[in-house]
Amino acid sequence: MSQTLLTLEQAASLQGCVLAYGHFTTIHPGHIRYLRHARSLGASLAVALVGDGPPDQPSPYPFRQPERAEALSLLGIADAIVLLQADELSDAIATLQPEVLVLGTELQGALRMEQPLALLKAQGGNVQFHAGEVTYASADLLTSSERDLRQQRRLQFAAACQRQGLSRQDLLATMQAWPQTRLIVLGDTIVDQYAACEAIGMSAEAPVVVVRELARRNFIGAAAVVAAHIRALGAQVDLVSVVGNDSTADLVQQELQAQGIGDALTRDPSRPTTFKKRYVVENQKLFRVSRLEQHNLDGPIEEQLIAQLEALAPLAQGIVVSDFVYGVVTPRVLAVVQELAHRHGLLLFGDLQCSSQVGSISRFRNFSLLSPNERELRLALQDKDSGLESLSQQLLADTHCERLIVKLAAEGFIAYDRDSDGRILNQPFPALSVNPLDVAGAGDSVLAVMATGLASRQAMMPTAALACCMAALAVETMGNTPISGETLRNSLEEVLAS
């Protein structure tokens, strides 16, 4: 069946199909997962698209039904899109008599679904509540060439910019205010060492790979690399962190001085500077060894950290909290950050990495921006089944944060903002890098651009578009290398020129 747009009256020929339903204001990866799952359940799939309502009334959605229908059609997943006048799901069920109705998990138990579901049951149909399969990786390279995927994602990026009314000149102009911006970055400092190795073979003594180390290089990471990115983008920045009383801390201080980053480090003799060594053969990481302590700061060290924050806060426009849950961002430190933000009118930007630690980004409340990945979002809300949209809305409500970036690895990220009436709007941005070399630190680069842009008072969506380009640059090199504003500008020119 070729994909087509049908009125409800024209849809009778689709009887017995699988039926999906929604308003699909903005198509993002969560919707695509849902639709692909629905498509797998039968021979044909129809999507009942909620309409704009009475023609003499304003549409309740930012984009009108013809635009939403076009976006759905371009996905090529559904066989037909059924255009409802308003929200007449019962009429769609009566006309199409679907074998299976697939609804998002957020509609499970909703009172307005009782009548449509009763009709579906009477007709002998079944309902399935599903948000689509949760994945943290992509298999796209199995079905498309790298060149085709890159072009496809660049077209998706251009379409996202067009939908938000963003031109290349607009995006470049937003970066002009960055040199007048000053930020504080608070959080854990990590030194990442990459050891390039040659594989020799298998050990005769045990089933392990034997490698010979060829060279090594150190990179500052975590909060330190967020600060490095911000400085390289042209803004002023101070790093407030805790390191050990060791030679690794000396390396960090030397690197901060070389990059022109304000050094507000506190030395803690009770812990080593967090150090992670990765062994790499060609572009393949073999394993990682970490040297770290995770206990919360002792009282005197905590006081020194707080004193640094209080001294720097009057000079800044915002504070970036990069928490790797190694004990630097204690409850008291976080409370001081929020009080300083209130006192000095600072924006707060938060990211919490808990892949191997215990933590929840929901502890960051009343922030200007939070930036979790999908796994961290689900951990924070203790929900592995719900759709991305309902989870994102819940985190916004629970934390009272203004804006949100949900990072989706190979699927890019979704940016959430609020309009002048307080309504939450979203826009997905694709992962522009198709075959990344090293994904470690991509989230740090996104946080750096978002904080720099928003602190300079530019809008959310142009900042997110620049962050999309920044993430692609970050994963193209091995290790955390600061990306300059000039490099970002050149990348943007290239992506939007193709």
Description:
The chain has 498 residues and is α/β, with parallel strands linked by helices. The protein has two domains: 4-133, 3-Layer(aba) Sandwich (Rossmann fold), CATH 3.40.50; 148-187 and 226-269 and 297-497, Ribokinase (UDP-N-acetylmuramoyl-L-alanine:D-glutamate ligase), CATH 3.40.1190.20. Helices cover 36% and strands 24% of the residues. It has helices at 29-39, 65-75, 89-96, 114-122, 146-163, 168-174, 223-232, 247-259, 299-312, 331-344, 374-381, 388-399, 442-455, 460-474, 485-497, and strands at residues 4-7, 18-22, 45-49, 80-83, 100-103, 126-129, 182-187, 189-202, 209-222, 236-243, 262-267, 274-281, 284-291, 318-323, 347-352, 369-370, 403-407, 413-418, 424-429. The strands form three sheets. Strands 11-10-7-14-15-16-17-18-19 form a nine-stranded mixed sheet, sandwiched between helices. Strands 1-4-3-2-5-6 form a six-stranded parallel sheet, with helices on both faces. The chain has a four-stranded mixed sheet with strand order 9-8-12-13. Helix 3 (89-96) runs parallel beside helix 4 (114-122) and helix 11 (374-381) crosses helix 12. It is globular and about 75 Å long. The chain starts with a strand and ends with a helix.
Number of domains: 2
Instruction: Provide the structure class.
Output: alpha/beta
Largest sheet: 9 strands, mixed
Average pLDDT figure: 91
Helix content range of the residues, please?
25-40%
Q: Can you count the beta strands?
A: 19
The shape is globular
List keywords for this structure.
single chain, 498 residues, Rossmann fold, UDP-N-acetylmuramoyl-L-alanine:D-glutamate ligase, 2 domains, nine-stranded mixed beta sheet, six-stranded parallel beta sheet, 15 helices, 19 strands, 36% helix, globular
